[in-house]
Every structure is written in structure tokens, then in C-alpha cells.
Amino acid sequence: MNLENQPCTRAPREWGLDPLFWTSAKLFVGDLHAALPSSSASVFFVGNQHIVRGVEVVGIVVSVDTRSPKMTLYNVDDGTGVVLCVQFVAAEDQPSPALRQAYELGTTVRVEGRLTTFRGVRQVVIRTSTPVAPDQEALGWLERLALR
Amino acid sequence: MDLESGRPVFLEELVQQPAQSVGKTVRVAGTLHAYSPATDRAELVDGQYLLIVDTQLLGVRQYHVGQTYQLIGTIAGVAAGELKPPADLFDDAQYSLDIVLSARVVKAVDGLDMAVYRKAVHAVRQFLESG
Question: Which of A11, A30, A72, B95 would you label with B122, given CA atoms 20 to 30 Å apart?
């Protein structure tokens, strides 16, 4: 992706001065994979020295993995890439798989969460996820283009 | 699991240049023109362009002819003579018997504004190519 990512030259104690540090940045999945890592495992650099912790992606669920009792793994495809999204299951829901309502394949979802790298793989730890209408995905693409 | 992203494409791009699409993972949208559960074959239409879809990987589900669907899958090359031409063709229909979409994800998207969708795809594509 052509954000021309540059690492931030400011000291970590000044990272909070960047507004994107405190928000969920609306990015393409391709941007998530291209983001530069920092000295912190959950902080990344995008664009002109911007600092990102939280992200929001909109895309289609292309795989669902509910084998683990503690988490549900989704792969979300927005047309620019595929990213792994991890939803940790609440302790009270773990013994009852029926309570875990995973999204179906093909569901268009808006996922908001924390961007991390685990075992070399970029992933989003889901804070909130919402199924949305298919029109919202096209709107999401246009939003992300406008925000660049 | 390494999944390849489905690049949004239009049916006319696949039908007019089938050889260039073989092996690529794509995302298409169109109206269901025909479906045969016996052969796991669906026909997707967008305007005058028709694409043949292999629905074997999609499992058992109900399809409604005339409904709009979005599919993600891989374009597979087909040997000459393997595919039967579509039946009940409309006037000026254009299709290719050299490729078939092996779909792995399907979503009913009735109500999707195709005009806005096309513009959005073109805008994203223009941006990605300018990088």
C-alpha cells in the first residue's frame, strides 16, 4: 500500500500527542500488513510518522475457526488483503459452545480492535465487531480513501 | 492458513480476458441467472456478461434465481469442451467457456447499489495502482 510509512522520530513519551494514537484508525487490510513495527509490540507506524494502536477494518469473513474454547478466529478480507481477527471468548461462555455465536462465512463485518503481531503474523484483537450491510463495505472503502 | 485476498473484479473483465484471470483469487458480484444443484453449477450475470461458477465448495444452501450474490473464489482454467454452454441465454449474452469461478465464500447482497459499488471499486483500484 502506498502510505509511505515512516518510523516516528519522537520519543515514546510523546506518542500520545498524535490523535491517531487514541483512536481506531480506519485503514485497509493492506495498510495493516504494511505498517511498520515499533519498539512496542502493539504500536505501529503508518504514513508520515503517525502512531497507531487501534484499527477498524470492514470486510467479508472468509474463514471462521471455533476450535479453541477460549477464542474465535476470523479471517476478514476487504479486497486489499486478509487479516486474522481474534475474538476472545468470555469465561462464562466457554463451557457452552452454543452461546458462542460465530459469524457465518460471507458476513460483512466491521471489526474494531487492537493491532498486534503474534508469532510473526499481524492480527487484530477484536474489541467490537458488528455485521453490516454490503453497502457499508463500499462506503468503508471510500471513507478510507478520503482519510488518506 | 494463508488465504489470498479476493480482488474485486467485474464480470466483463473476466469474460473478455479469461486467460489473464486464471489462478487469481477474485471477488465478483452479480445476479443469479441459473443454478443446478446436481452439477454444482451456477451462472452469474452482470449486464450482458455471464460467468459460470462452481459451487461445490459452498456446501448445501438455498439459492434464489434473480437474487444478487457476491462470491469470492479462484478462477480455474477449463479445457476446451469440458463446460456446456449456458442454457436460456438472453440476447447479446457474452460468456467464456475457458474459465470457471471456484467459489469458496458466497453472500446474498440484495439491495447492493451496483453503481456505487462499481465506482468504489474503481476508486480503490485507481488508488492501489497509483502506489
Answer: B95
Question: ipTM of this complex > 0.90?
Answer: no
| Closest by CA position to B122, among listed B21, B48, B13, B20 | B13
> Under an 8 A CB cutoff, do A60 and B7 touch?
no
Q: Which distant-in-sequence residues (6+ apart) come within 8 Å of B78 by Cβ?
A: B97, B98, B99, B100
Q: Is A99 helix (H, G, I), strand (E, B) or coil?
A: helix
**Does the distance separating the beta carbons of A62 and B6 come in below 8 Å?**
yes
Q: Looking at chain A, how many residues does it have?
A: 148
Pairwise CB contact (< 8 Å): A141 & B120: yes
Alpha helices (H) along chain A: 29-34, 134-147
**Residues on chain B touching A2 (C-beta within 8 angstroms):** 127-128, 130-131
- Using CA atoms, how far apart are residues B82 and A98, in angstroms rounded to an integer? 44
Q: pLDDT tens for chain A, 148 residues: list them.
A: 667 777 777 888 888 888 888 999 999 999 999 888 887 778 888 887 888 999 999 999 999 998 888 889 999 999 999 999 999 977 666 666 555 678 889 999 999 999 999 988 999 999 999 999 989 999 999 999 998 8
**Quick one: CA dihedral A37, A38, A39, A40, positive or negative?**
negative
- State how far the Cα of A105 lies from the Cα of A74, in Å rounded to an integer: 9
Cα A117 from Cα A65, distance rounded (Å): 19
